[in-house]
From TrEMBL:
Residues spanning the membrane: 50-69, 115-134, 146-166, 212-236, 257-283, 332-356, 376-397, 412-432
Top-level taxonomic group: Bacteria
EC main group: translocase
Keyword field: Membrane, Transmembrane, Transmembrane helix
Organism phylogeny: Bacteria, Bacillati, Actinomycetota, Actinomycetes, Micrococcales
Any one Pfam family match given in the protein's UniProt record, by short name: Cytochrom_B_N_2
Cofactor list: heme
EC assignment: 7.1.1.8
Catalytic reaction list: a quinol + 2 Fe(III)-[cytochrome c](out) = a quinone + 2 Fe(II)-[cytochrome c](out) + 2 H(+)(out)
Boundaries of every Cytochrome b/b6 N-terminal region profile domain copy: 17-243
Stated name of the protein: Cytochrome bc1 complex cytochrome b subunit
């Protein structure tokens, strides 16, 4: 204790302040423990970091914008710097957004930074989720973190949509009108929900203020809370890693948080922020002055919602017309309910998949090593089909632009996308699965024989053989994977066979999967071909 006090006394002001703070919080132990955490080094792990850093850009730019935005639908007359709209009646929200764009120093830059960062935020979340799915990083013990990531994705889309609707311009107003129509399509309660949301008949006079409260308080608070929980669980469970020499299920090979990983992360953060500001400086987005204030009578042509919301609009366009059923005084509009069902199946399927795969495969072990996507053909093919399903709905949201740009009939575009939504997803599933299996066969051949060198020699007895280049230790680890066996039915205490459906699904999951090379096969191959290496 004497030595510690003497050292503190001899230190500078920073050392004294740090000692004072640590003596009252004991934070040094937590910092020391966290600083020892090891993080592996791979480019795919940076997708989650991009989401975090774009969220920082959203918070910084959004804080700036809140000082100048007026979330009111009160009518006013515009007298700002943008001459074409001077004297036009509009809401205070629209007028304040124009003032931010043309009269506040740096306002337009901050608006565009906010919008571009929001797009990047959702995109990086989705790419990060795809990486987690295709590599099996959602398996035990990370099922809860997978669910948290999906909740973050949904909140991010709601956050983007609520912010997109705040300027009360023609484009955002039409988007809200579509949402209002979908809500009213819900039988019995739809109209009441719409009146509650908009404060009366659409568009009402309260929706912008309510969306503003969601956008700057409730949804950001939920995002921050779930992000913190997501990162806490990542630290608790330790980071996943790709297979390689010295990497096992019980260790992590990489760099400690302090100082290596933290230094790299800080540098990467400034790169991401710099790119966002560069894009916002050079590329215009959401020019609301071209659309004008919202008016229920006109509908802007050739405009689509932000890409991450487009799948909902596309689902509405792909439903055939005239799907209605009357039950007395109540008319059920299936053209609204079926898109809700499709989007629900798409999202709920993502939530339950980790538990479904664990049940089908019977795999209850903890996994800290990642799968190469090719080594789980069924999962990879299903993920590709899932992406095709989403992308087809997203493309349908631009069906009018596709038709005009490529001089095609609108009906032809819709009919093709209707087929591709289901038939295309099945085709993608089959092609990707066969592709993964072919890659597995190639890996197995490479493990047993090495890389082809293109050099052919003649053996003493006259046989011609190609000389193969031996694999490195890292390549051997990378190309090997665990062999699984399908779940089999079992007999209960009464002698009745149970689990037949689960066994059938398990056989389907593992169907055509190429078995990995066993250690004995690998050792035999080394001896058999040693003279040719």
């Amino acid at each position: 204790m004497t030595t510690s006090n003497a050292s503190a006394a001899q230190g500078g002001a920073v050392a004294k302040a740090a000692t004072w703070f640590d003596e009252r919080t004991s934070v040094s132990g937590a910092v020391k423990e966290f600083g020892r955490k090891i993080f592996p080094d791979h480019w795919s792990f940076m997708l989650g970091e991009v989401a975090l850093y774009s969220f920082i850009a959203i918070l910084l730019s959004g804080t700036f914008l809140t000082f100048f935005f007026d979330p009111s639908m009160a009518h006013t007359e515009y007298h700002g710097s943008y001459v074409p709209l001077q004297g036009m009646e509009m809401s205070a929200a629209m007028a304040s957004t124009l003032d931010i764009s043309f009269d506040v120093r740096g306002g337009l830059l901050m608006r565009q930074v906010h919008h571009w960062a929001a797009l990047l935020f959702v995109a990086s979340i989705m790419l990060h989720m795809a990486r987690v799915f295709f590599t099996g990083a959602f398996r035990k013990p990370r099922e809860l973190n997978w669910i948290i990531g999906l909740v973050l994705w949904i909140i991010a889309m709601l956050e983007g949509f609520s912010g997109y609707s705040l300027p009360d311009d023609l484009l955002s107003g039409n988007g809200l009108r579509i949402v209002d129509g979908m809500i009213k399509g819900v039988p019995i309660v739809g109209t009441w929900i719409s009146f509650l949301l908009f404060g009366g008949e659409f568009p009402g006079d309260a929706i912008v203020g309510r969306l503003y409260s969601l956008h700057i308080m409730i949804l950001p608070a939920l995002l921050i809370a779930f992000l913190a929980l997501h990162m806490l669980l990542m630290v608790v469970h330790k980071h996943t890693q790709w297979p390689g020499p010295g990497k096992t299920e019980s260790n992590v090979v990489g760099n400690p948080v302090l100082p290596v990983f933290a230094g790299k992360a800080a540098g990467f953060m400034f790169i991401v922020l710099g790119l966002i500001f560069l894009i916002a400086s050079l590329f215009q987005i959401n020019p609301i002055w071209n659309y004008g204030p919202y008016d229920p009578s006109p509908v802007s042509a050739g405009t689509q919602p932000d890409w991450y919301i487009g799948f909902g609009d596309g689902a509405l366009r792909l439903i055939p017309p005239g799907l209605e059923t009357s039950f007395g005084p109540v008319t059920v509009t299936w053209a609204i309910l079926i898109p809700f069902l499709l989007m629900g199946i798409f999202v709920i399927g993502l939530f339950v998949y980790p538990f479904l795969e664990s049940w089908i495969t019977g795999d209850k072990r903890e996994h800290h090593l990642l799968d190469r996507p090719r080594n789980a053909p069924f999962r990879t093919a299903l993920g590709a089909a899932w992406i095709n399903f989403y992308a087809t709905m997203w493309a349908a949201a631009s069906s009018d632009l596709i038709a005009t740009h490529f001089h095609m009939a609108m009906e032809h575009v819709i009919h093709f996308l209707q087929f591709w939504l289901i038939g295309g997803s099945l085709i993608v599933f089959w092609v990707v699965k066969r592709w993964c299996i072919s890659l597995q066969k190639h890996d197995r051949n490479t493990l047993l024989h090495g890389h082809e060198s293109g050099r052919v020699i003649r053996l003493p007895h006259g046989e011609f053989q190609e000389v193969h280049v031996p694999l490195t230790e890292h390549e051997v680890y990378e190309l090997q994977y665990e062999n699984y066996v399908p779940v089999k039915p079992y007999l209960d205490e009464n002698g009745k066979k149970k689990g037949k459906a689960r066994a059938a699904l398990s056989r389907w999951f593992f169907a055509d999967r190429v078995e990995s090379v066993t250690p004995s096969e690998l050792e035999a191959a080394k001896h058999d071909h040693a003279e040719l290496h």
